[in-house]
Amino acid sequence: MNRRHDWREDAACLGNPVEVFFPHDTLASDRWVQAKIVCKSCAVKRQCLSLVIDLDPIDDKWGIFGGKTPQERIKERERRRNDVRKNAQSNYR
Ligand code: SF4
User: Fold this and answer.
1) What is the pLDDT of residues 47-91, one digit of tens each?
2) Would you give the DSSP letter of residue 12?
3) Within 6 Å (CB) of ligand 1, which residues are found?
4) pLDDT for position 1
5) Ligand 1 geometric centre to CA of 40 (Å)
6) Residue 4 — φ and ψ, nearest 5°?
7) What distance in Å separates the CA atoms of residue 7 and residue 78, rounded to the nearest whole number?
8) Which residues contact 60 (CB under 8 A, 6 or more apart)?
9) Which of 39, 52, 53, 64 to mutate to test the pocket of ligand 1 (most atoms within 8 A of CB)?
10) Can you give the pLDDT at residue 57?
11) Quick check: 26 pLDDT over 80?
């Protein structure tokens, strides 16, 4: 029996230390550098980011997903909301 392939199996972060993606020192200015390097070459970056963007923002405060930090994901949600709003407005014109 073939099992369904899960995109998470292609994640570039597999096997990396968890601390790289969920740093203990959340105030260090370079805390995301290593994770961003890994995420940059990840084949499933888009899926990873979408999974987390669809979460309630209140639950999305830690870690890096899709190459984006929690603060960057706040901006990404805003950008996506604006795109939806613009598309909806252009459909009514
Ligand atoms: S984009 Fe997501 S799945 Fe890919 S390496 Fe980064 S955290 Fe892991």
Assistant:
1) 999 999 988 888 898 999 999 999 999 999 999 999 999 999 988
2) T
3) 11-13, 21, 38-39, 42, 44-45, 48, 64-67
4) 64
5) 8
6) -75, 135
7) 26
8) 52, 70, 73
9) 39
10) 87
11) no
Position 83: which residue type?
A: D
Three-class secondary structure of residue 11 per DSSP: coil
Query: Which band of pLDDT confidence, cut at 50, 70 and 90, is reported for residue 93?
Result: confident
- Residue among 71, 90, 92 at smallest CA distance from 82: 90
Q: Give the distance (Å) from ligand 1 centre to CA of residue 87.
A: 29
The pTM score is 0.86
The label of the residue with tokens 């603060």 reads 71
Distance of CA 81 to the CA centre of its chain: 16
Q: Closest ligand 1 atom, CA of 35?
A: 6
Enter the tokens of residue 7: 């995109």
- Measured in Å, residue 91 CA sits from the centre of ligand 1 at 35
